Every structure is written in structure tokens, then in C-alpha cells.
């Protein structure tokens, strides 16, 4: 059985938007808030293009819904 979690593209996108607009918070803090391993989040960051890093991509108005 595979223990890897599979996240939707929408979740990944929202996580990346959140991490790129984190201000002075650490990647670790954002990862913990999203219940992710920080290395998973960093891997997603590494695999994004600069266009994907734009905070304007937030689709939910409330960060609590990310």
C-alpha cells in the first residue's frame, strides 16, 4: 500500500499562493498550518514557474478556507 498522500491541483495551487504570500512567516509555519510536510511544500515550490508565484491567484477570499 502506498502511504503517499495525493493532493488535488487546486489544493497545491492554494498552498503555493499561501506560501508565496506568507510575509515574514516561515515555510515550516505555513506547512504546519496546511498539515503538510515542509519538504512536500518546498518540492511544490521548486516545481513551479514564476507565473505560478503570483499572489493574485487566490480563489478564496478567506485564508481559513485555503
Look at the structure and give the mean pLDDT. Answer: 80
For the biggest sheet, the summary is: none
Succession of helices and strands: HHH
The portion of residues forming beta strands comes to: under 5%
Shape category: globular
* Contiguous uncertain segments of 5+ residues: none
Detailed description of the structure:
The structure is a single chain. By secondary structure, this protein is mostly helical. It is 42% helix and 0% strand. It has helices spanning 9-20, 27-33, 38-46. The longest helix has 12 residues, at 9-20.
List the helices and strands and how they pair.
Blueprint: H1 9-20, H2 27-33, H3 38-46
Give a nutshell description of this structure.
This protein is mainly α and 66 residues long.
Keywords, separated by commas or semicolons:
66 residues; mainly alpha; 42% helix; 3 helices
Amino acid at each position: 500500500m502506498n502511504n503517499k498522500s495525493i493532493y488535488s491541483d487546486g489544493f497545491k495551487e492554494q498552498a503555493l499562493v499561501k506560501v508565496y504570500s506568507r510575509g515574514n512567516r516561515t515555510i515550516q509555519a505555513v506547512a504546519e498550518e496546511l498539515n503538510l510536510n515542509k519538504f512536500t511544500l518546498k518540492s511544490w515550490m521548486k516545481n513551479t514557474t514564476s507565473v505560478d508565484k503570483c499572489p493574485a491567484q487566490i480563489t478564496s477570499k478567506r485564508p481559513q478556507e485555503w
